[in-house]
Write a structure and sequence with these properties.
Elements (H helix, E strand, L loop, with lengths): L3 H15 L8 E2 L1 H8 L3 H13 L3 E4 L3 E4 L4 H22 L8 H19 L3 H17 L6 H8 L1 H10 L3 H19 L3 H12 L1 H12 L12 H5 L1
Antiparallel strand pairs: 1-3, 2-3
């Protein structure tokens, strides 16, 4: 069984890497992390090992522990998992004769309002929190309460790219419009509109990926030959 303290340190490290507080390629010191987090080196060492297994850090003999660069293969797998599962959830939610409950529609719209406020406040971390709360509700509409947890476990590499893209109010406002389109489609039981909006939204990171690679080339691992992002960057 994992040490609860190591689990806490692991969650904090994942958050710091995903939100780019620790950037790709940055060196991490176990001593400094232990001091910052107020723990001994033992839970930090265990947490770092888990991060290594997840591909978020790498250990080099001469350089120590480094934050891994974004692996495009893992990123694309995570995007595929998210789009596939989330659109399947929408299909299930709209496949029956019973409309989606008004309380669920209201809850999603409240999260969108909170996102709009975060955009106004230039708060990308808060934006992502309310973004994920809305998507959790969407997935739960399928009757499978834990689907979003499955998506969340697979998408840490996707989330790093998401946080890179949330650099302006305009980007966050665009995502709010996409969220509103998804929820409007669900609220009106318009399967075609809801699915089209969901696919457009979950593919947004694919659209902006070449621009992010061009602006932050040191954040990404080398692209495989023939990768579309390489061709358009």
């Amino acid at each position: 069984m994992a040490d609860p303290l190591a689990t806490t340190v692991h969650a904090r490290l994942v958050s710091d890497i995903v939100t780019l507080r620790f950037t790709p390629g940055q060196a991490l010191s176990e001593n400094e992390l232990a001091s910052e987090y107020g723990v001994s080196r033992t839970p930090v060492r265990e947490a770092v090992q888990r991060l290594r297994q997840a591909g978020l850090v790498e250990v080099r003999p001469q350089s120590g522990t480094l934050v891994s660069k974004v692996d495009l293969a893992r990123f694309r797998e995570a995007q595929f998992v998210r789009e596939t599962l989330e659109t399947a959830c929408i299909e299930l939610a709209l496949s029956g004769s019973t409309p989606v409950a008004a309380r669920d529609i209201a809850a999603m719209r409240r999260e969108i309002s909170a996102q709009r406020q975060c955009a106004a406040d230039r708060d990308p971390v808060g934006f992502v929190r309310h973004d994920e709360a809305m998507h959790r509700i969407i997935c739960a509409l399928s009757g499978h309460e834990n689907v979003w947890d499955t998506i969340a476990q697979s998408k840490v590499h996707l989330d790093r790219v998401r946080h890179m893209s949330l650099v302006t109010q305009d980007v966050m406002r665009m995502l709010v419009r996409q969220h509103r389109a998804i929820v409007d489609g669900i609220a009106t039981a318009n399967r075609k509109v809801a699915l089209a909006a969901a696919r457009q939204h979950t593919r947004e990171t694919l659209r902006v990926l070449p621009h992010l690679i061009a602006s932050h080339p040191d954040y990404f691992s080398p692209m495989p030959a023939g990768d579309p992002a390489a061709d358009s960057a």
